[in-house]
Amino acid sequence: MHRLPTFLSIVLVAFAAQTRAADPPNIVLIFADDQGYQDLGVFGSPNIKTPNVDRLAKEGMRLTDFYSAASVCTPSRAALMTGCYPERVGRLGVLFPRNTIGLNPDETTIAEMLKAQGYATACIGKWHLGHKKPFLPTNQGFDLYFGIPYSNDMGVDPTMDLADDIHWRNGYTEEKFRKLSANSRAGGPPLMRGTEVVEFPVDQNTLTRRYTETAIEFITANKDKPFFVYLPHTMPHIPLYATGQFAGKSEAGLYGDTIEEMDWSVGQIMATLKKLKLDKNTLVIYTSDNGPWNLRANATAKVKGNTNRKVGGSALPLRGYKFQQFEGGMREPTVMWWPGHIPAGSVCSEVAGTIDLLPTIAAITGAKLPAKKIDGHNILPLLEGRPNAKSPHKAYFYQSKAVRMGDWKLMVSGRGVKGKLLFNLAKDIGEKHNVAADNPEIVKKLTAVLEQFKAEMKAEGRPPGRL
Predict the structure, then answer these.
(1) Which CATH number fits domain 396-466: 3.40.50.2300, 3.30.1120.10, 3.40.50.720, 3.40.1190.20?
(2) Residues 260-289 pLDDT 10s
(3) CA triplet 400, 114, 398: central angle to 5 degrees?
(4) Would you say the pTM of this structure is higher than 0.90?
(5) How far is CA 319 from CA 36, 101, 149, 356, 461, in A?
(6) Any idea what DSSP says for residue 135?
(7) Left (φ > 0), alpha (ψ -120 to 50) or beta: where does 327 sit?
(8) Residue 258 pLDDT exceeds 80
(9) For the chain, which residues make up each domain, given as ranges?
(10) Contact assessment for residue 443 and residue 430, using Cβ atoms and an 8 Å cutoff
């Protein structure tokens, strides 16, 4: 369902659709880490202020039923990059510095697809699809990579390549670095540029600012050609960090500080696009990889003076958290902005997800879809607010543990699930009432659909990348 402000908006997007192929848009994809469904002002946060993302929603579209493909980091990112359910592209679990696997280089990423169209491509932030050379962003379609290779609560692989001008912090030297264990979290994560470590351990208080500066530099350097900026933020994954400008400023503790700094980042990028006169031809997407941690204490807060402040996010009015297939673990706060194409002030409540971004971007840019089978669909009709546009998903799957068809959702396994749970999301968005006993035919139907999906993924699933 869409709520559109005026008939004129529909006319404008229809006209714009005829001209976009001749002038492919720039794309900025901002991917938060563990941000709750409610944790944006426009999604109802009572204590986190996000005026820049809220403005994108006011001038663009808020998607209320937009899903990640997993409730944890690595598989959700594999799905985003490939347009596939995680089960199809290697069944990757959360990767650690000790792992030697990653996203298979034989898969086609959004970046590789766009490079073939002449786009400049950058990945700035958390990658988490394999830290070994063959799996890093610069070997997966990105011209530039700057960020940490996995989650910020992890350690380091001491066999990683070091830059000649590496910046050592906290008393570390190459000798001490090489003696660390990939099974330990000692030292913390590295900061990388390309395939080399440029700082160890990374100064996490400055990460959001440095990611933003790098994105602005890349946009400015490539202003005369189409570009794709993938900005997967480290925050608000724990441990939480913020610069002094934002630490202690929000009403939602250190967790809120990190999101308000990320919102500042959005504002800086938008100001750059406007300054360079690129704002009329840029698609901006803001979403998250999965839901928030279920946290009540601030044991992981690292900014001085914040030791008594709560850090957990909120998925309200949804049930559940990260690691779960309840809505709170996988339904994400999502905003998309593209002047002249996405109607201002619109709301989409049709089912869509990160697996749809690759085919949608292909449709927008005229790029060729991957040769290998994908699971996502082109949702451009939804984004343009076309009359009677509906979700292309007859069924949407939650890591083989649950399935949604229309308003009905069946859960058969996963954290917090005992027996079969059936919910009518239209009537019970908080998944409080299991109505399986009252609807045996619906349970039977959805069970069969889920079993068919599992069989398909088992038969057609492709291997992960291995050294």
Answers:
(1) 3.30.1120.10
(2) 999 999 999 999 999 999 999 999 999 999
(3) 10
(4) yes
(5) 11, 33, 30, 24, 30
(6) G
(7) alpha
(8) yes
(9) 2-152+202-383, 396-466
(10) no
Alpha-carbon distance 423 to 438, whole Å?
Answer: 11
Out of 3.40.720.10, 3.30.450.180, 3.40.50.12780, 2.130.10.10, which CATH number does the structure's domain 2-152+202-383 have?
3.40.720.10
CB of 307 within 8 A of CB of 301? yes
Do domains 2-152+202-383 and 396-466 share one topology? The answer is: no
How remote is the C-alpha of 167 from its chain's centroid? 29
**Catalytic amino acids?**
73, 128
- Residues 201 and 184: their CA atoms lie apart, in Å, by 14
SS3 assignment, position 52: helix
Query: Mean pLDDT, to the nearest integer, of 108-118?
Result: 98
Q: pLDDT-based confidence at 215, cuts 50/70/90?
A: very high
The whole-number pLDDT of residue 13 equals: 46
Residue 300 has a pLDDT of 44
Average pLDDT over residues 308-326: 86
Quote the tokens at residue 292: 């928030």
| Amino acid 296: pLDDT | 60
